Amino acid sequence: MIWNMAEGRGKKAKAHRQQLSAAGPGVFRLDSVRMKNHDIATAGNGNETLLICPGERAALRFLAQAKPLSHLQAFGQPLLGRWLEHLSVTGVRRVRILASDRPEQVRAMVGDGAQWGLVAEVIVEAHELTVEEARAKYRNVKALMVDHFPGLPEYPLFKSPAHWINGLRALFGHLATGTRGVREIKPGVWVSASARVSPDAELRAPCWIGPHTVVAGDTVIGPMAVLEDRVMVETGVSITNSAVAPETFVGRLAELKDSLVEGSLMINWRTGSCARVPDRGLMCPLGQRRGVFKPITFVSRIIAAGAMALTLPAGLAGMLWAKLRGQPVFRAFTAVRPQPAGAGGAVTTITYHELGAGPAWLRAWPQLWSVVRGDFAWVGNRPLSPVEVAGLGNDFEKLWLAAPIGLISLAQAEGAETDHETRMWASLYATRSNWRLDLSILRRALVSATVRSISALF
């Protein structure tokens, strides 16, 4: 099966290649200028190039259980995606990708190649071809094996787990500032702008911390540590000579040394031994890590009723404000009701209300009644509509629904300003929720409300 990019995209592809080549500060990619000449010389000069995706490799079969080896991530980018970007920068226009292992996943990632400024085709092969076989079958077209990082053919990746880690180590020397919002905060220490790293964490070069990754305090990361996207590291963890795959939870006081980690899977790259960690409190896929789903207690509902009575003047003022502005006094919204992990059953919704006018904290006043009814907790994740729930893209983001709906959220307490930050804090709360964290959120919310009230007076 073949996917072709529509004709007429040549100008767009050329513009994309020029943009990549001219990438300045803020762009994260391999520094093609410093690459060795091997892959550039064999990639062709704007003509067609073949990329051969690796098939099965016994030495890395555990890492390829959920995805083909071409999809293994390194420094925030799948190996195949790194190759496509590299070919685009070096002037290649058309790429045919030969895939024998789960080609449907390759096709889903590559699409038509437009995001790299290429015309891309994915061709299903019954088995992995050698470079010579591919060139003979496709009329002597330039062919490259996706078994090393671009420009680093002396570091084959799939002979053993040790070869993969050696390839990562070599790649550290070819990182250049590029488009993924990653910057070098000190020599050899790369941190994404969207990561959250405690000031009490010790980062030792070389190390890499990817987007939306959270690193708690009293941790040691590095030397030679790679934390990919959406990794959560709790207090007291030490990670050295190791790589942690996306969406992995590493629990309190865990020590990772000489390891490749993906979810609950841990491989010692020196010995090749592999084990699954049964304790989800120590290590697991982040989507399986959920805090305790707290019921709404009777006491909290009584307190909410009292708070509503005490703040009734403010609520009446908000209603009057809306009336004078010609707005509806109340606005009704629909939210998906969260469920405890494993509860199953059909998705249900609830209705909650906001005032029609006023600042955000005042508009939320009717939601105290939602706490009284037991639909909301005092602290949780903010409500999501069915449309917003449908937009949650992965297991990490879907953790939002693993915690009760809250009048106040961790994202609000942290001052989240973007959807990505809000989703990250919501997922983080779902994995770490406890009474100490709830008290901390309430305290910060109270201080913030007090400051806003004083500012309004003056």
Q: What features would you describe in this structure?
A:
- It is a single chain.
- The radius of gyration is 26 Å and the shape is elongated.
- The strands form eight sheets. It has an eight-stranded mixed beta sheet, covered by helices on one side. A five-stranded mixed beta sheet has the order 11-14-17-20-25, with no helix packed on it. Strands 6-5-2-7 form a four-stranded parallel beta sheet, sandwiched between helices.
- It contains 15 helices and 29 strands.
- The model is unreliable at 1-38 and 40-46 (pLDDT under 50).
- Strand 23 (265-268) and strand 24 form a beta hairpin.
- It has 458 residues and is an alpha/beta fold.
- It has three domains: 10-158, Spore Coat Polysaccharide Biosynthesis Protein SpsA, Chain A (Alpha-Beta Complex); 181-288, 3 Solenoid (UDP N-Acetylglucosamine Acyltransferase, domain 1); 298-457, no CATH class.
Could you write a compact summary of the structure shown?
31% of the residues lie in helices and 22% in strands. The chain is an alpha/beta fold and 458 residues long. α7 packs antiparallel against α10.
Which characteristics define this entry?
8-stranded mixed beta sheet, 5-stranded mixed beta sheet, UDP N-Acetylglucosamine Acyltransferase, domain 1, 31% helix, 15 helices, 3 domains, alpha/beta, disordered N terminus, Spore Coat Polysaccharide Biosynthesis Protein SpsA, Chain A, elongated, 458 residues
Fold blueprint:
Layout: H1 10-21, E1 29-30, H2 37-42, E2 48-52, E3 73-74, E4 77-78, H3 79-89, E5 94-99, H4 103-110, E6 119-124, H5 131-137, E7 142-145, H6 161-172, E8 175-176, E9 182-186, E10 189-192, E11 196-197, E12 202-203, E13 207-209, E14 214-215, E15 220-221, E16 225-227, E17 232-233, E18 238-240, E19 242-244, E20 248-250, E21 255-257, E22 259-262, E23 265-268, E24 274-276, E25 283-285, H7 298-310, H8 312-324, E26 330-336, E27 349-355, H9 360-363, H10 367-373, E28 377-379, H11 386-390, H12 395-398, E29 406-408, H13 410-413, H14 419-432, H15 435-457
Parallel strand pairs: 2-5, 2-7, 5-6, 10-13, 11-14, 12-15, 13-16, 14-17, 15-18, 16-19, 17-20, 18-21, 19-22, 28-29
Antiparallel strand pairs: 1-8, 3-4, 9-10, 20-25, 22-23, 23-24, 26-27
Helix pairs in contact: 7-10
